[in-house]
Fold this sequence. Notes:
Radius of gyration of chain A: 21 Å
Distance between the termini of chain A: 30 Å
Shape of chain B: elongated
Largest interface: A-B, 41 and 47 residues
Mean pLDDT of chain A: 87
Strand order of the largest sheet of chain A: 2-3
Number of strands of chain A: 4
Shape of chain A: globular
Number of strands of chain B: 11
Largest sheet of chain A: 2 strands, antiparallel
Largest sheet of chain B: 7 strands, antiparallel
Strand content of chain A: under 5%
Radius of gyration of chain B: 19 Å
Mean pLDDT of chain B: 85
Oligomer: heterodimer
Number of domains of chain B: 1
Structural class of chain B: mainly beta
Amino acid sequence: MKAxxxxxxxxxxxxxxxxxxxxxxxxQDGWLELLHDICGIKIRTMTxxxxxxxxxERSPFxxxxxPTEKDLALFLxxxxxxxxxxxxxxxAAFLHGRKVHRLFCKDIPRTSEPAVIACFKYIDKMFADAPxxxxxxxxxxxxxxxxxxxxxxxxxxxxxxxxxxxxxxxxFQKLNAIMHRKNPNLPNFNQRTDRIKQEILNGLLEKRFTxxxxxxxxxxxxxx
Amino acid sequence: MATSxxxxxxxxxxxxxxxxxxISAAGNVILEDFMVTDPSKKILQSNQIGAxxxxxxxxxxxxxxxxxxxxxxxxxxxxxxxGETFADxxxxxxxxxEEVSPAFRVGEYWxxxxxxxxxxGYSS
Lengths: 224, 124
């Protein structure tokens, strides 16, 4: 039986340290609720309310499928700093849609692709700390919103309006903190470092390289 | 950059760095937060009224706890089962797994908490 420390694999220690720092910055950004840049268009940090709205609109960015130009425009409008849920802003929406069309839809897919990729990266950032689920757990009769509202309101005694307005990354970090406080044995997940480790495991399982190849720096895999 | 204090909340950063363990049935698995407990116990001998006469210390059974990141086979996690064995690169011991948690999932990553004991009278 062999064992190999990840630190002994050339390049992995540095890649893991870089990934940890990136994750640290992403988590901090979640608290600062910064504006994000999508190829020149500013969007807000997604709130619970935005998520529900996008989910109701069956946004391909939430469901991880290919979006149309209309989907891109709607996504960027719902998350724009000008958008206020429940308030009609038809002229602002029209002008925003025209700007999106002018910037990204002149020569699809060449002009739209960078924006679509940036939107998916934004989604990855928003959901980087989604709390873990358990394999084989029973099907819940409650909606995910019940879980989010119930947990946050019972722990922090905040109003429903506060929960609707909370940023999704901040909420996930709070839910993780609550889960870890109640169950200290819960494993920690870090999407960025876990991805590097999974790359190594997949390569070994698919026999693309061996432990010796890894140790001698002969294995090639994506560390970024 | 995160300091150790900043990342050490909720057990983050506890134990040894991650390593690839070749587990007998599950294959290659990455173990992180590998923490070994090496306890001792005292043997005390006292006289009829409880006054100390002799004392000695002996090593007790060595145990470990770790978090395993499961490999994926066609998108499904290869779940670690109790009774499996592996070697570690820090102590050079062979360990057997006596307790496994359910698999926790975030996206495409699956993890299990595992606990176990050193295998005695067996060298890797």
